Amino acid sequence: MTLSSSPELFDDLDDPSPPVPAVVHRVEVVRRLRRFRRRRHAVIGCVAATLAVVGSTVAVIGATTPAPVRAALDTSASARHNQSSTRPHNQAFTRPTNTTNTTNTPSPYGTSSHGSSAPQASSLQQATSGSRAASASSGASALPPAPVPPPCPAHSTRPSWQTGRYCGPAPHAGNGLGPNGECSGFETAPPCGPGVVVGRYYTYTLPGRCDGRIVFDGRLWDSELPPPTNGPDQYVWMRLDASGGLGFISPEGAVGFTPDTGQPPPSCGGTSDASGSSGSVPAPTG
Amino acid sequence: MGQPVETESFDDAFDRLFRIAYRAAYRLLGSREDAEDVAIDALTRAALHWRTVHAEPAPWVTTVSAHLAIDIWRRRKRAQTLEPTTPSGPIDPLDSRRLDLVQALQRLPRRQRDTIVLRYFADLSESQTARTLGVSNGSVKQHTSRAMVSLKRDLGER
């Protein structure tokens, strides 16, 4: 063998009579292919079985975790969920945190559909919806604890949730003719009757009916987040803003209202709205 | 080697690839039975990877066949180490040369060995070898030159 650079370098090592490719060679290739694929399927099956075993084991561990452990894992979510469940009105809201306000007359309540003069309203509404979704998911996932809001500024004269906690004077009963000062629809003076001053906070008795329908400024309004069940009345601060939006603010939160469209009030909790503790709201007179 | 046939199926290419694989294996093994087994093994692997190798299957099959043949030599050497046997008859000079060649190829770096296999076992040109290995023509020349120096040193100029 001469190690020259010619292509015929190893020609003398060739088989002088090489076999002709035959069917038997093809059959052997097919046989080895099948064998390889069987092995590959077996490996895949083993991997799948292993994953199934691991998955079922994890599921069993999750199902057999002692209740105290699961309760500890769900502390935050459960606490929020329970708090929401016992809240008498608008239970699904989330208190707004770190809202910015650039206007002289803040609109601290959620009036998401009330126009552009309430810039923080949309975020509040979104947060409200998110909280409702989280509550609807039964609080199975552990949520991080809520941050502690900063203290209220000294001498807060206007109700506000801008710091993440309620600041301002405590609301008291409204001046309506109904029980607890509820508006009955027959009042002629604000805030139940017409003549409400835009931007001014009125103390107001919010009825705990689940239809979420109220009377204010001589008109009917529908809550954007009506309570799912009837509950006790609340004392809130109600305000009509310049864009025509209405909302209340109270230590329990802030929710907006939209003008009633004449549609029948929604039922709640499978019960008719007519079964409310305070009865339905009559149409305002005049 | 002609232009790669894009639409060539494995069945269509089987005979051609079998001859190529058998030739590379026989040059290193010198055994018809072993070379056929290696060729079938190489074609089985080609069928498994046909989607990626169908453009230029010949260099791929040649390289796989040569590597399988070298593996057989390795296994034989390991077996002989475990169970040394005295040769019963005179050794075929071609077999001796094959053994020297395989051992010399084993000592080569991987890139140089692939270059030699493609250039002298698959009979590819420099440019075809360069395209197959994904290197430049100059790199193929350099690898070939260095590999030949090593082979001459290991095999001796005969």
Measured on Cα atoms, how large is the radius of gyration of chain B? Answer: 16 Å
Number of strands of chain A: 6
Shape of chain A: rod-shaped
Low-confidence stretches of chain A: 1-7, 76-141, 270-279
Overall geometry of chain B: globular
The number of helices of chain B is 8
Spans of chain B of at least 5 consecutive residues whose pLDDT stays below 50 are none
Helix share, percent of chain B: over 70%
Strand content of chain A: 5-15%
Terminal CA distance of chain B reads 30 Å
| Helix and strand run of chain A | HHHHEEEEEE
Average pLDDT taken over every residue of chain B:
82
Summarize the SSE layout with pairings:
The complex is a heterodimer of chains A (286) and B (158).
Chain A: H1 23-63, H2 67-73, H3 75-86, H4 121-136, E1 201-206, E2 213-216, E3 219-223, E4 234-240, E5 246-250, E6 253-259
Antiparallel strand pairs in A: 1-4, 2-3, 3-6, 4-5, 5-6
Chain B: H1 10-29, H2 32-48, H3 50-53, H4 57-82, H5 93-107, H6 110-121, H7 126-133, H8 137-155
Helix pairs in contact in B: 1-2, 1-4, 2-4, 4-6, 5-8, 6-8, 7-8
Could you name the key traits of this structure?
heterodimer, A: 286 residues, alpha+beta, 4 helices, 6 strands, 27% helix, B: 158 residues, mainly alpha, 8 helices, 77% helix, 0% strand, globular
